[in-house]
Design a protein that fits this description.
Blueprint lengths: L14 H9 L15 H19 L3 H7 L9 H4 L3 E8 L9 E8 L2 E6 L6 H9 L3 E4 L2 H13 L6 E4 H7 L6 H8 L10 H12 L5 H31 L4
Parallel strand pairs: 1-4, 4-5
Antiparallel strand pairs: 1-2, 2-3
């Protein structure tokens, strides 16, 4: 499902109106005619489409991030998946005022980059990764990863953001990333490692234990890479459930 199939960002259009349009064969902006709805709603839809087309051509994901209801932002994914940055952080604890970010992994264009505290984890390098993407994709990133990075590195992250935790909840998938991965069939190279182990591995690295940092980086990178698989699967399931089959 693409944003061009959606009318729900328009003021005055809810799920029932959008569904009625789809049922009447109006499944794309190109299909729309004001006679399909009331005069005022028709005017609102036409105004939105006229503004949205050039925004979409320009790759302005932020416009659609603002326009779509929070529960429907998964619809941005199909349009912006190729320019999305899937990222995940590891930290020394859960409090961004007292704990530190240790590693950050970014998966984009099939490549994965990991920044490490004390080496290349700098505000400039993180900003460069975000600036190269139209859409950020995380799991629980709105409540955890982004606020943590903003506090730790004095950043202001304003890139459009799809948090898969909420996308998964629409499918009835709850809990942490690892249980959801298992439920939908995503396998891990090291399923025995958890977030608590990530804290332990960093402490071992600080003590100079060989291999600890490498294991932590591998774990963090797998988190970021698996977000791509999870996003593909979750949005496809929602697409099949939401949008009428052509």
């Amino acid at each position: 499902m693409r944003v061009e199939n959606s009318f729900i960002p328009v003021r005055g259009v809810g799920e029932s109106t959008e569904r009625r349009l789809w049922d009447d064969g109006v499944t794309h902006w190109d299909d729309f005619h004001p006679s399909a709805v009331g005069a005022k709603t028709g005017e609102n839809i036409e105004t939105f489409i006229d503004e949205a087309r050039p925004r979409l051509d320009a790759g302005d994901a932020a416009f659609f991030d603002d326009a779509f209801p929070s529960g429907e932002r998964w619809r941005l994914y199909e349009n912006f998946r190729d320019s999305a940055c899937f990222f995940d952080i590891e930290t020394t604890g859960l409090d961004h005022d007292r704990n530190d970010v240790t590693t950050v992994s970014f998966h984009r264009d099939g490549e994965t980059t990991t920044l490490v505290q004390g080496d290349d984890l700098t505000p400039g390098n993180v900003r460069a990764e975000f600036d190269a993407a139209d859409l950020l994709v995380t799991f629980n990133g709105k409540r955890f990863d982004v606020p943590f990075l903003e506090a730790a590195l004095d950043l202001d992250v304003d890139t459009a953001h799809l948090d898969l935790m909420y996308t998964c909840k629409k499918l009835g998938l709850s809990g942490g990333l690892k249980p959801i991965e298992q439920e939908i069939g995503i396998e891990r190279d090291r399923p025995d490692i958890s977030g608590r182990d990530a804290v332990r591995l960093w402490k071992e690295h600080e003590r100079g234990e060989d291999g600890s940092l490498e294991t932590l980086i591998s774990y963090n990178r797998e988190d970021a890479v698996n977000l791509r698989t999870l996003a593909d699967e979750a949005t496809e399931r929602l697409d099949r459930r939401t949008f009428p089959r052509r």
